[in-house]
Amino acid sequence: MRRIAATLLPLLLTGSLACKKAEPPPPPPVTEPPTTAPAPVSVSAVTLGNAIGADKKVAAALESFGVKDTIYASVETAGTGHAKLRALWSFVKGEKTAKVDETTIEYDSTGPATNEFHISKPSGWPKGDYKVEIFLGEGGGVAATKTFKVS
Amino acid sequence: MANDQDKKSDDDMPDFSDVQSGASSTAPAAEVYETYVVKPGDSLSKIAKHAYGDANAWKRIFDANTDILKDPNKIFPGQKLKVPQKN
User: Fold this and answer.
1) Chain A residue closest to B17 (CA)?
2) Does the distance separating the beta carbons of B6 and A56 come in below 8 Å?
């Protein structure tokens, strides 16, 4: 009887080890998704022209306009958050500038947007040099400047 | 519409008081306005007449400036008012 037990015991032990269910692999470590702060609104492009399409973009970029033209500035923005865009149009004569017009657009940006500002003067534009400055944000600095001529 | 005093700031500069302007955006619910600096003798009706050609449209300007205006009859020189774009 002892001989039988001595023979079977190692076999039983080996068998129980072999049948033991393997431990499941540990779960992969939880990694947080990369937290990138949303980009704030920025001006990506300013284009001048005398006509725009339904997409608010100018049909053909111009730097010189006729005295009866309506002058458009198409301003493309990117980023998210509250956007405040101010267009300041000025006449430039030597060192002096005269304000022509100032218009502001405010909106909550969720992505790329195209904005247009336009000015016209029924009596005709005085010939000379002009510029439009685009300001971004509350009391923000100039984000872009475009110069143009009326001839 | 821009302030007359701005547009005639220099005697040897052209007059831009008849300039018409506007703006629009592809962004939904964009608010478009001009900034008007109140001059002595101004009233909301007078500003509305100049901006929209209709003195009775003064409430549009008042409604756009309730953050700084509590009484439509009390505006002060130097105040900067939002004048919503003429539709």
Assistant:
1) A100
2) no
Residue A10: which residues within 8 A CB-CB, separation 6 or more? none
Q: Which residues pair with A90 in a beta bridge?
A: A99, A131
Query: So what's the ipTM on this one?
Result: 0.79
CA distance B64 to B23: 17
Nearest to A106 among B9, B26, B30 (CB): B30
| Cβ–Cβ gap A116/B23 under 8 Å | yes
Q: How confident is the model at residue B62 (pLDDT cuts 50, 70, 90)?
A: very high
Q: Provide the shortest C-alpha distance from residue A23 to chain B (in Å).
A: 56
Reported as a single tens digit per residue, the pLDDT across A19-47 is: 556 777 777 777 666 667 778 999 999 99
- Residues of A within 8 A of B23 (CB-CB) are 87, 103-105, 115-118
The one-letter amino acid code at A82 reads H
CA B47, B57, B68, B77: dihedral to nearest 10 degrees?
Answer: 10
In terms of Cβ atoms closer than 10 Å to its own Cβ (0-12, 13-18, 19+), residue A73 is buried
Instruction: Mutate one of B9, B12, B25, B80 to test the A interface: name it (highest A CB count within 10 A).
Output: B25
pTM: 0.77
Nearest to B64 by CA among B48, B86, B81: B81
